[in-house]
Write a structure and sequence with these properties.
The protein is an alpha/beta fold and 439 residues long. It contains 16 helices and twelve strands. α2 crosses α3 and α4 crosses α5. It starts with 12 loop residues before the first helix and ends with a helix.
Length: 439
């Protein structure tokens, strides 16, 4: 349905003005929508049709962030008609949550997302997929004035460029929100095949200015790496930190009064890059440790490349299918810690799991990453970290053996996580957006 969120208020206007200026980036309007002479004026809010496209079809993928991002777009363009295109199952997590708030957008059920294979064929399939969504929006009487695509693969970016040239009217603002972490750029990874190299993320990023598309990195350190790699396109690379949903909170614990026992969760998709094997190893070490009382639970789906892992040490095993958001929150309500072990592909990524820890106030245990270091630099410690599962278990045993120390540290970590959460609320992002995107 079409509706405007009733939750708009002056305290939340800053990110709206900032995001509006981002959306007006290619058409010469200032933050208040007043036209200037650079290109020829802005499209007024009364005529704005915003099409946001989320290719992710996983029930746990990006839901909290997208809910906060969508709410910020609504506040930025209160009179606009917003259409969010995504999978039906994903929409249930995105729109429902625990808040019950109306986001004020129309929903478009997206067709099946093409299976990724990082080839020219994939680029063509993604182009057809995007073209179908734009055509359906027009058939519904909504010729987009803004198109925002959330994704970061090379073929997807190239498909976005083609859609901009062939399907969208002149003056339409096109932005691509990079959910990825620029890992290919940081490590210098390139396909050896010349054709595949032409369709890579690196190749696509070199065309941003050519097609007048703005890329939005979701963390400052990722944006910095991208600008270093593409100095000629630095003005086409903006940054808005990952937002968190201010309405989503944990339900009441179902198992209160767990005493000295520790519950550690692995959240989301079980992959080698997210340390699933290290998590299982930690659980096995803990089970063999005499006197250690604790549970290790995997809440999410298992990838084929870790199906060989023996999950018998886990109190809850990763499943074949995804887990609804409500079930994840119910598990998180009973957890003491969330396991974070980012390596390789996720070296720079803030990870949806880390964002959940910030949003829900759950301390972390695991290994360090660039994202965790940056959070702690700004706000202080947010958990306990070590170089390997063996060292981490030693620290957990010490924490469990000293209830007073455990209470003091956990209280400090939760306080620092709350500071990080407040910084990432939609109403708190205005100054960050101006500093990173509007210079």
């Amino acid at each position: 349905m079409d509706s405007v969120s009733p939750l708009l208020d002056p305290a939340r206007a800053a990110p709206a003005r900032a995001l509006r200026r981002v959306l007006d980036w290619s058409d010469g309007a200032n933050a208040d929508g007043v036209a200037d002479s650079r290109v020829g004026g802005s499209i007024r809010a009364s005529r704005e049709d915003v099409l946001l496209i989320e290719p992710c079809h996983e029930r746990l993928g990006h839901a909290s962030f997208n809910r906060a991002f969508l709410a910020t777009v609504r506040e930025a363009l209160p009179a606009a008609r917003i259409t969010f295109a995504c999978a039906t199952g994903y929409r249930q997590d995105l729109a429902g949550g625990r808040t019950g708030r109306a986001i004020g957008a129309s929903w478009m059920d997206a067709p099946a997302w093409p299976h990724p294979n990082f080839s020219p064929t994939e680029c063509w399939r993604r182009f057809r997929w995007l073209a179908r969504l734009v055509r359906r929006a027009r058939e519904a009487g909504r010729d987009p004035s803004h198109v925002v695509v959330l994704g970061s693969s090379g073929p997807l970016l190239l498909a976005v460029f083609a859609i901009k040239v062939l399907f969208l009217r002149k003056g339409c603002r096109v932005l691509t929100v990079l959910h990825g972490n620029a890992n290919e750029i940081v490590h210098g990874w390139q396909p050896r095949n010349v054709v595949l190299k032409a369709f890579s993320f690196r190749s696509a990023m070199r065309l941003l200015r050519v097609f007048d598309v703005q890329a939005i990195a979701l963390e400052a350190w990722i944006a910095e790496k991208l600008r270093e790699a593409f100095p000629a396109h630095a003005t086409s690379i903006g940054c808005i930190p990952h937002a968190v949903d201010e309405g989503e909170r944990l339900p009441a614990p179902a198992r209160p009064g767990s005493g000295s026992a520790l519950t550690v969760l692995f959240l989301g998709q079980a992959t080698p890059y997210k340390g699933f094997e290290e998590f299982v190893r930690l659980a096995g070490l803990a089970r063999r440790q005499e006197g250690f009382c604790g549970e290790f639970r995997a809440v999410g789906s298992v990838r084929p490349d870790v199906r060989h892992v023996d999950q018998s040490p886990l109190a809850r095993r990763a499943a074949e299918a995804g887990v609804p958001r409500a079930e994840l929150l119910a598990e998180a309500a009973n957890a003491d810690f969330v396991f974070m072990w980012q390596n390789g592909h996720y070296e720079l990524s803030p990870s949806g799991v880390l964002l959940d820890c910030i949003s829900l106030g759950i301390p972390m245990v695991g290994c360090r990453s660039v994202a965790i270091d940056e959070i702690e630099r700004r706000h202080g410690p947010v958990g306990m970290f070590a170089e390997d599962p063996e060292s981490l278990l030693v620290r957990l045993i010490g924490l469990k053996a000293d209830p007073a120390l455990r209470q003091r540290l956990v209280s400090e970590w939760k306080t620092n996580l709350e500071k990080a959460r407040l910084e990432r609320l939609p109403r708190s992002l205005g100054s960050v957006a101006r500093r990173q995107l509007l210079a």
